[in-house]
Amino acid sequence: MKKLLLLAVAVVFATSAFAQDYKNSIGLRLGYGAELQYERHFSDKNYLEANLGLYGFDVFDVNATYNWNLCEWDWTPNAGKWFLSAGVGASVAMARQYFNVGVAGDVAFGIRFNKPVTLSLDYRPTIFLLNNWGSGFAGVGLTCTYNF
Questions:
Q1: Cα(140)–Cα(108) distance, integer angstroms
Q2: DSSP labels, 14-44
Q3: How far is the C-alpha of 88 from the C-alpha of 33, rounded, in Å?
Q4: Which of 31, 47, 94, 148 could form a disulfide linkage to 141, CB 3.0–4.6 angstroms apart?
Q5: Residue 22 domain-assigned?
Q6: CB under 8 Å to 117, separation ≥6 — which residues?
Q7: Is 119 in contact with 109 (CB distance < 8 Å)?
Q8: Number of domains present in the structure of the chain
Q9: How far is the C-alpha of 52 from the C-alpha of 100, rounded, in Å?
Q10: Whole-model pTM?
């Protein structure tokens, strides 16, 4: 009887762990370079995204965008929910002796799987204000995050 009770308690804790709302995400974004990504979800409607990137071996970039979830679809309910989000923020980049600040946008289309994983394709154009770096609108990337 004790074993059955212990098993029931373990099952309740395991199912509640999968039914929770995830507030944080950490992952990797691959595009022109590689970026570590952190997301802090405030609600189902909005979240803050921060990225730390390295492009080639000479450009280091930090950016943060505040994003809104615009739409969600249940196209594949057994797999997860599809989403479209957009946001705006700031970017700081350094390359050798140069320093630059800019305004960054973000548009992402992806799926939040029923497991704690999100996969998205996003576009993050950046308009640099101090120096004219030529690839500010080439910000397409594939992002995979783990939600916790």
A1: 10
A2: HHHHHSSPP-EEEEEEESSSEEEEEEEESSS
A3: 20
A4: 31
A5: no
A6: 144, 145, 146, 147
A7: no
A8: 1
A9: 15
A10: 0.80
